[in-house]
Write a sequence for this structure.
């Protein structure tokens, strides 16, 4: 409803972006004509809040008619104060000087504004390509380290934080562009870096003789900080240790928290929130959240002890250990550690946990599995 107070973004820029998305094709499916000879493709097209069916002889957007949507500039966001029609456009400060608008638009009558938007966003010479690359690699860094090189991933403007390592941010962005915008290469680059492979050290390990620390907030990444798994990954881990995680891709989702598919396929319904995701700071699906909050609360510990979903996972985990042909309790403990946290137990851990198994009954193995699921190492990456 107004120009941005700090960044050079005008109110009209919002409506220019809206114009790019005003026309939406929500789905295409193959159908048959009445005589069954000529296949056609039907799509639902939404334009100016009106829905209609359109058909084409080819399964692509090329054969579908394009109806330009009219987006008007609303003064102060008031729909009763509509002014001139606004067409797809981009913020001038993200367009190189003397760049014609036709660079991202062509003369095809059925081209939508989204095509031009995609071209402008990835144009590294005249558009927003370099900014897009910086934003992407910063989010990837944030995903792996828990904090981005720019600590405000949703705000690269004047009110956002300055990058702690601007040269590194630019270098990663250039690598992303040079590799054809492939994310896997950036993931590999980060995960194989010496910085990512640093071992965990407590903050007090670098306190000097004067009792001070040159970088107490670890902005220079001199040590590895423990990073808690996302809520979805915690639920997936619980499914995995029980041997019931379905890692298949695509297909419909579910509202059932006991569904064996990965959490990314869970459907979100506000009246049926999933406790594991809710208590471990799962994001609100109704708004964009660049950085999740990370809380440590008593209900989280109670959930890991008493929640039926967690208890069922512990029971299935115990069945996996019981079915394994082990020669003694020490082997059961070792296998449990490897399956739950990816490493064998230390001699001290083996000495402390072996008595939990007692005579190796199913109930005692379940108790041991519940202990493993409550370890910090099950929830954190160190």
């Amino acid at each position: 409803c107004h120009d941005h107070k700090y960044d050079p973004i005008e109110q009209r820029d919002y409506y220019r972006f809206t114009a790019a998305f005003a026309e939406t094709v929500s789905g295409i499916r193959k159908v048959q004509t009445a005589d069954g000879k000529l296949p056609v493709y039907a799509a639902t097209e939404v334009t100016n809040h009106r829905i209609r069916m359109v058909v084409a002889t080819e399964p692509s957007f090329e054969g579908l008619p394009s109806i330009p949507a009219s987006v008007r500039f609303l003064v102060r966001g008031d729909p009763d104060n509509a002014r001139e029609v606004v067409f797809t456009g981009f913020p001038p400060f993200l367009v190189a000087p003397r760049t014609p608008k036709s660079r991202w638009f062509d003369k095809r009558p059925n081209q939508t504004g989204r095509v031009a938007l995609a071209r402008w966003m990835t144009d590294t010479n005249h558009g927003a390509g370099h900014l897009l690359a910086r934003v992407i690699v910063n989010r990837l860094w944030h995903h792996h380290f828990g904090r981005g090189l720019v600590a405000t991933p949703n705000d690269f403007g004047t009110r956002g934080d300055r990058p702690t390592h601007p040269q590194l941010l630019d270098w990663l962005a250039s690598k992303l562009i040079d590799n054809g915008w492939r994310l896997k290469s950036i993931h590999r680059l980060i995960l194989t870096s010496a910085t990512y492979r640093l071992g965990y050290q407590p903050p007090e390990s670098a306190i000097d003789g004067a009792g001070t620390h040159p970088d107490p907030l670890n902005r220079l990444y001199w040590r590895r900080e423990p990073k808690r798994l996302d809520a979805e990954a915690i639920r997936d881990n619980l499914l995995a240790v029980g041997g019931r995680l379905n890692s298949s891709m695509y297909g419909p989702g579910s509202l059932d928290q006991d569904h064996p598919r990965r959490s990314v396929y869970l459907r979100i319904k506000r009246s049926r929130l999933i406790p594991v995701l809710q208590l471990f700071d799962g994001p609100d699906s109704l708004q964009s959240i660049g950085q999740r909050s990370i809380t440590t609360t008593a209900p989280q510990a109670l959930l890991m002890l008493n929640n039926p979903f967690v208890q069922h996972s512990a029971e299935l985990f115990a069945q996996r250990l019981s079915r394994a042909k082990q020669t003694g309790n020490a082997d059961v403990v070792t296998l449990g550690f490897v399956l739950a946290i990816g490493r064998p137990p230390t001699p001290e851990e083996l000495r402390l946990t072996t008595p939990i198994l007692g005579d190796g009954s199913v109930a005692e193995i379940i108790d041991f599995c519940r202990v493993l699921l409550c370890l910090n190492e099950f929830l954190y990456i160190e």
In short: The longest helix spans residues 129-145. DSSP finds 13 helices and seven strands in the chain.
